[in-house]
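Q: What does the assembled structure look like for these inputs?
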Amino acid sequence: MAEDREVTIYDIAKYLNISAATVSRGLKNNPMISKQTRKKITDAATMLGYQSNTFASSLRSRQTLTLGVLVPRLNSHFMSSVLAGMENAANLHGYNLIIAQSLEDVDKEKRNVLTMYNKRVDGLLISLSANAVDIQHLEPFFKKQIPVVFFDRVHPHADSTSVGIDNYEAAYKITTHLISQGCKRIMHLGGNLLRNVYTDRFKGYKKALKDHRLLFVESLHLVSNLSEQAGTEAARYILDLPAAERPDAVFSANDTAAVYCMLALKAAGLRIPEDIAFAGFNNDPISKVIEPNLTTMNYSGEAIGNTAATYLINHLKGSTDLYATNAITLRADLVIRASSLKKDAAG
Amino acid sequence: MAEDREVTIYDIAKYLNISAATVSRGLKNNPMISKQTRKKITDAATMLGYQSNTFASSLRSRQTLTLGVLVPRLNSHFMSSVLAGMENAANLHGYNLIIAQSLEDVDKEKRNVLTMYNKRVDGLLISLSANAVDIQHLEPFFKKQIPVVFFDRVHPHADSTSVGIDNYEAAYKITTHLISQGCKRIMHLGGNLLRNVYTDRFKGYKKALKDHRLLFVESLHLVSNLSEQAGTEAARYILDLPAAERPDAVFSANDTAAVYCMLALKAAGLRIPEDIAFAGFNNDPISKVIEPNLTTMNYSGEAIGNTAATYLINHLKGSTDLYATNAITLRADLVIRASSLKKDAAG
DNA sequence: TTGTAGGCGTTATCAC
DNA sequence: GTGATAACGCCTACAA
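A:
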């Protein structure tokens, strides 16, 4: 019963007594074909239940209308916002997304890159895994001139563009804000220094200290994966410090670590911001729920995703030269909330 | 300079003075081919920079090693966990994920279904949009016997399987728990009743009321999209109620609405759980950050995603009959936290 | 164990 | 405007 062969343009052609070439053209609304036949074709197509075979088409036309997306982890608030933004942009232009995660593992990242290549994605959107030392594994793409756009965790490369925010400036602003609140011993919870987002935040933090004549203290710089657990451990670390060496503020490179650090310190009886002020990064939903609300850096994951995908697609459509722009920097705004308002709390 | 033609199995064949067929076999580790030639082939492949063309292969072999994933929204904690679980399972078995979101819009969902079909995904994983009345639009898949697995927001269909939790029982447990704490006027913040997850939670809630001789009160049943805003509006609604008609507990069908409702009520001076107890659903990260911590239903999005994808893949590989199982129900556990512990709070 | 030949469904290139 | 024909890169009977 079940007819297994696909309905092809040949079936339509036969049905209408015209050539397959004409059907192919008619289906794509090629203006060379008369309005009449075009209508006949589309009608016959729906009535025969025709559905175009994308990869037969891809094989011939050398484009897949598919973008590869490679992220460290799928399940973070920030990343899912980015994906939502990308999906919107892609969908708008008739592109699809094929998505994989590296789980912060370069080897998996490498395999994924090759898979994307084998699937002949038209372009690649990538945010690097924590421990990727270089971008050697992207060579196949560069060699074949398949456009690559980095987002968030970027890496400079002549044949690509990066989309992100100015992490240096953002961290500088946050740190300066804490200093303006009277904080003098500001701890930094940072991420893996192989990634620009974390080195830049670290540098911005140090520069702000320096500009305000505060000493950078090694023991107040912790590097971790910024997970819930890392936040809790940071709290333990702080509590174990001699009273005189305790920080009077914490600037965390993400909200998760900040919030879990706060929770543990609160449980230990410390008052925030009186005893210790806090600032995070990302404007994650939890930053608006924790008490006191967490001062943080707000920037839109959706905007980053949308921008990166749109830029890539425009390039593919030939309306933009990918290499005209090396970096696209989106805005990030300091959102001041109670967790860092030492002066108000005192007053 | 840039040689634009792809490196194909013919290039390898020519290079080694063997036939393309042998190369094709060798590349797939076909045991018919001698170990020696196999090695020669793979060596030549890497040295020539060969990368297999997936869709040329797909065109011929009629399988894409790609699964379509269709979700209402990408950017929720639950959904991104699901995706992470699916990606793990898919990756493990050599499958890829092509992902799209309907943004709760049936029409977009319909278009996406067709795109997935045109891309000839080997199987479809779908969670329905809020306002999908039927699953007429999945017919192409059913007709062609392409397996479909529903997850979370499911829909009964003879030719598919569903993966989710027992929402009815979960809601029953939650409501019973609130009743056991002495609550008598329990409000329910529910979602769109077209979706099983919300009708089942609603039914479980009503059944628990009935079993404990409590009246179901229409005015204590709100239907919304369960967003932050919906939570805040629910609080407004509660505050506007005459004192005698106010609920003494709220069971929300998700944590987001619960938490934003709590925040607004707290801001208005109500005490939780003394004045009004709370329970949510999902065990979202915010439920552990809000004060008091939110009682909720815990179930793993990753497990759901992983199970759904694994099941689908096993079916594709022929090791499972898709229709042997109509529904896979994963466990969900009540996580009791301070927000619902009226008795403790009183004591 | 390997080679030959034809076809998967579409589109590009010429013709007319 | 439309038609013939040859690719695109790979796989798989069948033959050797």
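Residues 259 and 286 of chain B are 8 Å apart (CA to CA).
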